[in-house]
Protein 1
Amino acid sequence: MKATRPGHQPPPSPTNSSGRVCAHEGCATRLSVYNPRRHCWQHTELVFPNYRGKRLSPGKA
Ligand SMILES: [Zn+2]
């Protein structure tokens, strides 16, 4: 199969000028085009994996 079709490639999308910024109020940090989030890394809520049973168990040891 021939993979390439000259002249039928989609034009480069002008996503660079989309100007998405952090959704946090007052934050003007630009989001990367490849960043699917709505907040910049500073305002993205970090969710750490919850390792159960090891350190976070109060009392019983
Ligand atoms: Zn932000």
Protein 2
Amino acid sequence: MSSLETKLGRAIFRNPVLGASGCTGHGYEMAEYTDLSRYGAVSLKTVTYHARPGNPPERVNEVPGGIISSIGLQNPGPDVFLEEIMPKALSALDRDQIVVSVAGDTVEEYVELCQRTVERYGDRIAAVELNAACPNVNHGTGYFSRDAHAARELVAAAKGAVEVPVFYKFNTNFENYLEVATAVSETGVDAIYTSNTPMGMKIDLRKKRPVLGNVVGPVCGPAIRPIGMLRIWNLYQAVSVPLVASGGARTWEDVIEYMLAGAAAVGVGSAQFPHPDIVPQIVSGLEAYVEREKLDSLSVLVGAAHR
Ligand SMILES: Cc1cc2nc3c(=O)[nH]c(=O)nc-3n(C[C@H](O)[C@H](O)[C@H](O)COP(=O)(O)O)c2cc1C
């Protein structure tokens, strides 16, 4: 066993540094800029039940310590994803590296997406990730992230429908995020993945208008890392399910800090935009660290700051 090997429930990854969904394409787009074999895994860009054109431009802009974005889950829908995109992802990434991120408006839509993916590619992917931060037709954006009963129902239904490991990715911005995570942890979910991105906005001084076409959008990058750290710290005390942190990780030290707070793995998102080869650099830093510290396994650090 390698000292960086990482277990998220039934899923086993070569290291704890994961390419976060929406920031790593479908892997293959990154191949000429980075060494994909150094990624623990890549969560592919979320595919939704219906194709989505995304939000009006402008969709991404810089803010101090990060970026603000509002993409609106643009994607071509499941037919194109399964027929055209998945074969390319499979050609760039190994089986243990592919996490398929899905989202729907209803539990039934999520479940059907999981089933279609697993029927076709179940023996060639590591896990499915339920992106719970997306809109819901009846109950509004973030329903499956802020309603503990709905979140539990969603994850239980997906777990019952497919054999592969299931991750639940949710937005921790709602006051009851610990209650939601606790409810989800009772389903036997393999990992709880946190998107710790608070909403923000930016005004264009010249136009005297909001910069984003959608007016508001989540803020990500180093500016939000302390927020993510606190939420991982609190989640680690509340649930015993493996946690994945995302929010501002861009160095190996950031990954170690998140692990000490309680994360078993860390998603690296927008740090890849200016530095597409950042994940291999982070992994090399972790390898040097375990050597220096004479650790048999990096996983001994998970939650160590609580002890
Ligand atoms: C441009 C952009 C697109 C994103 N698209 C998705 C997505 O499709 N699905 C998802 O679960 N998260 C998406 N995210 C959230 C990231 O996966 C990640 O959780 C978030 O950016 C925080 O990590 P970071 O601070 O390292 O960027 C997106 C983020 C950005 C910046």
